[in-house]
C-alpha cells in the first residue's frame, strides 16, 4: 500500500491530513486522481465543499481542496464497499467521471460507539440531571453517514458540511422598486426634470445600453441597474411630463437600490454544518445556486413498548387488567416532529427471549431505540435485566421527577434509551435526554434545553435533591399555570399542557408572581 501523501505529492496540504486515514487505500486507487481533477471532473459538485475547506485554511488552493475531498470520498467508498470499488472509481477512462461522482455520494461511514460509553462509575447512586446530560454528551457522536443530496430532497436533513454561496445574492446591483433610474451626481435639491431615454430595464430583461448623466430610464423591481444608473426614484413620487420624469429632490444616493451581494456574497458560508434544513433555508440555497448539499442521512428512531399489560392498538379490545399503548404513538410522533424517521417496533410482552429477539431485529434497521416500560428494577422489569445481562447496560437513577429510572445501553452497537413506563415520565425523559442526544447522533450537535422565565400562577413547596418538571401552560396574562396533579400516570395533563415548568435541584418556595422557567413544547421540538 502506498501512502496517499506520496501519490499526490508534492501536495503539502494532504501530507499529515490524510496520512492517518487514507494510507490503506489500495495501490493505484489514486493514480488518475490528480489528472481527473485537472480535467475538472465533478468540479461543480465539489465547489461548495472545496470552498469551505479553503475558507478554513487560506493556504489551501481550490484544486488541493478538491483532491482532498476526492481522496476522502475514495476512502469512504473503500470502507463502505471494499477496495475494488475504490480502485474502479479512480481508474482513468471513460467511466471515471461517473465513478468519481458515485464515490463522492457514497456513504461516509462514521466510527462505532464504544460498548462502555454509558458506563457510570462505581458507587454513583443518584445522578443530577445536568451531570447525566454531560455524560450523555460525552458518550455520543454522530452515527449517520453523509452524502451529496439534491436540494429538492434535502428538506429536514442536517448539513454535514457548510453550504457555500455559489453566487452573490443579488448577483448585481439592482432596483428595489418600480420607478426611474438615473445617476445621482446629476441631480440636486428642488424640482428635478430628467429626460427619459428609450427602452426600459426589467427583471429578466436587462437594458444593454448606457444612461447618460442627467437622463433617466424606466426601471422595474429586480432589474439590474444599467450602466450610468446608481439611484432610483419611486414611481409614486414622480410625475411624467411628456418624455421626461419629474420629481422633488434631493433623492439620497443609491436610494431604492440593492447592492450586489448585500444579502450574501459569493463564497460566503450560507449555512453551517449541523444546521437542519427548513423551508426558508431551501429558498436561501436555491437563491445562491446551491443545487446539492452534503447532508447526513436521516436518523432512524425505533420505538418499542414492553409490558404484559399493554395492548398494542386502541382498535383492539382490552380487558380491565390491560391498558392500551399510550407511549408508542407518542414517541413515534415525537421522533417525526424532531425530523427523524420513526420506525414502529411494536409491542413486546415481558418475555426476555421475545424482547431479545425484537431488539436484535431492530438493531439491524434503526440507529437508536426508544423503549418504554421495564426500566426500573422490579420483578417484571425485563428490559433492564436483559440489557444488564448483555453487559452494556447502565441503569441511571436520575435525580428527576418524573422519570427517575433511565436505562441506557448499546444493543449490537445501537444505543437503547430505556424510558420509564409512566407516560408522563416517558415524555419528560424523552424531551430532556433523548432530544439532545438524538440531535448529537444525527449530526445536528448537542441541543441545550430552551426556555424563558415567566411569572408563576401557582404556589409550590419543592423539596431539595432533584430536578422537577411540571406540566404547564400560559394563562392569557402570560403566567405559568400547572396541571392540578403531579401523578405521573395522568396522561390528560400532558395533553392539557403546552409545555413544562422546570424547577431547580434545590428546595424552592414558589408563590404566585415569582419567576419560573417555562419550556414551551414547540421549543422542545414537539409540534
Ligand atoms: N419500588 C419501586 N417502584 C417503582 C419505582 C421505584 O423507584 N421503586 N419507580 C416508579 C417510577 S418513578 C416509575 S416512572 C416506574 C417506572 O417503571 P418502569 O419503567 O419499570 O415501567 P413499568 O413498571 O413497566 O410501568 C410503569 C407504569 O407505566 C405503565 N406503562 C408502561 N408502558 C406503557 C405504555 N406503553 N403506555 C401506557 N402506559 C404504560 C405501566 O402499566 C405502569 O402503570 O416505576 C415506579 N415504581
Ligand atoms: O418516573 Mo416516575 O413516573 O418519576 O414518577
UniProtKB/TrEMBL annotation:
Cofactor(s) named in the record: Mg(2+)
InterPro entries per the UniProt record, alphabetical: MoaB/Mog-like_dom_sf (IPR036425), MoaB/Mog_dom (IPR001453), MoCF_biosynth_CS (IPR008284), MoeA-like (IPR038987), MoeA_C_domain_IV (IPR005111), MoeA_C_domain_IV_sf (IPR036688), MoeA_linker/N (IPR005110), MoeA_linker/N_sf (IPR036135)
Metal-binding in keyword set: yes
Cross-referenced Gene3D superfamilies: MoaB/Mog-like domain, MoeA, C-terminal, domain IV, Molybdopterin biosynthesis moea protein, domain 2, Molybdopterin biosynthesis moea protein, domain 3
Reaction catalysis annotation: adenylyl-molybdopterin + molybdate = Mo-molybdopterin + AMP + H(+)
Pathway of action: Cofactor biosynthesis; molybdopterin biosynthesis
Keywords linked to the UniProt accession: Magnesium, Metal-binding, Molybdenum, Molybdenum cofactor biosynthesis, Transferase
SUPFAM superfamilies given in the database record: MoeA C-terminal domain-like, MoeA N-terminal region -like, Molybdenum cofactor biosynthesis proteins
Domain MoaB/Mog: residue ranges: 302-440
Enzyme nomenclature, EC number: 2.10.1.1
Family indicated by similarity: Belongs to the MoeA family.
Function of the molecule: Catalyzes the insertion of molybdate into adenylated molybdopterin with the concomitant release of AMP.
Name of this chain's protein: Molybdopterin molybdenumtransferase
